[in-house]
Specification:
The chain has 2 domains: about 140 residues, Rossmann fold, CATH 3.40.50; about 60 residues, DNA polymerase, domain 1 (Orthogonal Bundle). It is an alpha/beta fold and about 220 residues long. It contains 10 helices and 8 strands.
Length: about 220
């Protein structure tokens, strides 16, 4: 196995627990449209495929005609409240520092729209992340590999010496499409059992284990 020179991380459910603020924005949009609010558990299952799918799932079939308005309401609310309840997972910043100390380039590839992904990375991990690629600006959502390809290019790395870390089947499929090693994390929105069923061969149970897992192949 080639030494790892770059690691791409998913953002929501991998580096950050963003569920409280995503749920707040979803329910703010639904309430403004006079539609029933969604529970936290429901919204956990809706996230992972980008904002369009999130809104589509939250609306349900009977309210699909509200999609454009709901999306605009969501984005406006989220822009103002994306750091209200969001927090890094315990130990994740230390894991990023440990990897960087070993000379590993750190990137983020997210299905969060690009401006929000960049704002969250700067707010919570300023100075620890070298490249951020979110959805939009010609970048389709994961599992399309384009975001990973762009991030690797920015980091000066190739798939052979890089890995992708994430909490979902979407991340696993992205890694496969880009030719990357995949390492799952069990603390995110889907959990270990889900990742194992999806075919993940390597899963870390906490950020310290993840850093050890990956740095063993670092330069």
């Amino acid at each position: 196995m080639a030494r790892i020179r770059a690691i791409l991380f998913d953002l929501d459910g991998t580096l950050l627990d963003t569920l409280p603020d995503l749920a707040g924005a979803v329910n703010a949009a639904l309430s403004a449209l006079g539609l029933p609010r969604r529970g936290l558990g429901e919204i956990r299952g809706f996230v992972g495929n980008g904002i369009d799918k999130l809104i589509e799932r939250a609306l349900g079939e009977g309210a699909s005609g509200f999609h454009s308005r709901a999306k605009a309401l969501f984005r406006a609310h989220y822009a103002e409240h994306m750091t209200d309840g969001t927090a890094p997972y315990a130990g994740i910043a230390d894991a990023l520092r440990a990897l960087r100390e070993r000379g590993v380039g750190i990137g983020v590839v997210s299905n969060k729209y690009d401006s929000a992904a960049r704002a969250c990375c700067e707010h919570y991990f300023g100075g620890l992340i070298d490249a951020v690629v979110g959805e939009g600006g010609g970048v389709p959502p994961k599992p399309d590999p384009e975001c990973a390809i762009r991030a690797l290019r920015a980091l000066g790395a190739s798939p052979e010496d890089a890995a992708l870390v994430g909490d979902s089947d979407v991340d696993l499929l992205t890694a496969r499409a880009a030719g990357l090693r995949f390492v799952g994390v069990s603390w995110g929105f889907r959990g270990r059992a889900f990742l194992e069923a999806a075919g993940a061969a390597e899963i870390a149970d906490d950020p310290a284990e993840l850093a050890e897992f990956l740095s063993g192949n670092a330069p």
